[in-house]
């Protein structure tokens, strides 16, 4: 856990001139608790409008939460992954959409901070307005160089937070004479492109079962010209380094999603506990929590939740210790990381669905019932490709000497 403020963590490291990063204003989990009531109150409006409220975004930005993975060389807090993912779990227990949109901002702000050149960093962290990014690492666009600029066209799905982001990132295939430029591997060269908000358009496509407040619409650009400094190869070596850079990116990308799922399960467990202790079955004089059958079934789900949580955060802690000690992140470690993400989220999903059905129709199926939203959010979050059931197959293949990349292409994606 971080103690003190971001300023305390910077030491005497010189910060890049012309850069204005909003650092942490206080201890992380105290900040989360202070925002709790506002996040809960705004959740219904976020679901209706399919985006986070400007008020919540402004408050999280003012507290420095979007800059947790910005390195100290830029004035960021550079928070370790275990602390960050526990924070995401905590905020997801208030509202999953808020945690998810924040998660994307943390990931993308950290990515920009590591790889964008100084000229772009100064534009992004100019101090004029908010510095919040979003984006999609899977290719959805094309780039063609024209002198000192590139022309970009593309359409990307799952643009979580695109309505409040000030910049968006998209992976693009590099083109020349309308043909893909092929890399040494025989595959098209992929480049990351950064677009300020006024260059993008948003298609209203986020009509989903759950996680509605994330506003994960399709977004795109059409024949937009951007400076060469806003484009770089996806294989670029980092220009700066934050703490999470040594963590296998594909694994970390999955574990952040699983942490949000764990927060949904945490909220479900606590809701069911309070509901059962304050609700009497029709025509009875006892509380549901006093029923022996209820006690047995709740205990089983509570144990499943705690074991899933221990597997998730224990694995994150173990991998992080290897990174800190400079140990090799071998194939078994990558497999374990993916398994922790998919298995813990699967068990969290089981906890939510079981407690939903154990509650009965009157307590669960109606629109305004918390359990209905928790089930919808969990079902949608668990559908993310980073939590796909195919990770079992890929993990098994890796552990038994096979080729996991043939099953899940992003298996060992990493940035240096």
TrEMBL record:
Keywords of this protein's UniProt record, alphabetized?
Oxidoreductase
Report the coiled-coil segments.
none
Domain Acyl-CoA dehydrogenase C-terminal: start-end pairs: 256-388
Q: Which Gene3D superfamilies match?
A: Acyl-CoA dehydrogenase/oxidase, N-terminal domain, Butyryl-CoA Dehydrogenase, subunit A, domain 2, Butyryl-CoA Dehydrogenase, subunit A, domain 3
Determine if Oxidoreductase is one of this entry's keywords.
yes
The residues that cross the membrane are none
Q: Where is the Acyl-CoA dehydrogenase/oxidase N-terminal domain?
A: 36-120
Superkingdom assignment:
Bacteria
A Pfam cross-reference name: Acyl-CoA_dh_N
InterPro entries of this UniProt entry? Answer: Acyl-CoA_DH_C (IPR013107), Acyl-CoA_Oxase/DH_mid-dom_sf (IPR046373), AcylCo_DH-like_C (IPR036250), AcylCoA_DH/ox_N (IPR013786), AcylCoA_DH/ox_N_sf (IPR037069), AcylCoA_DH/oxidase_NM_dom_sf (IPR009100)
Report what the protein is called. Answer: Acyl-CoA dehydrogenase family protein
Source organism: Janthinobacterium fluminis
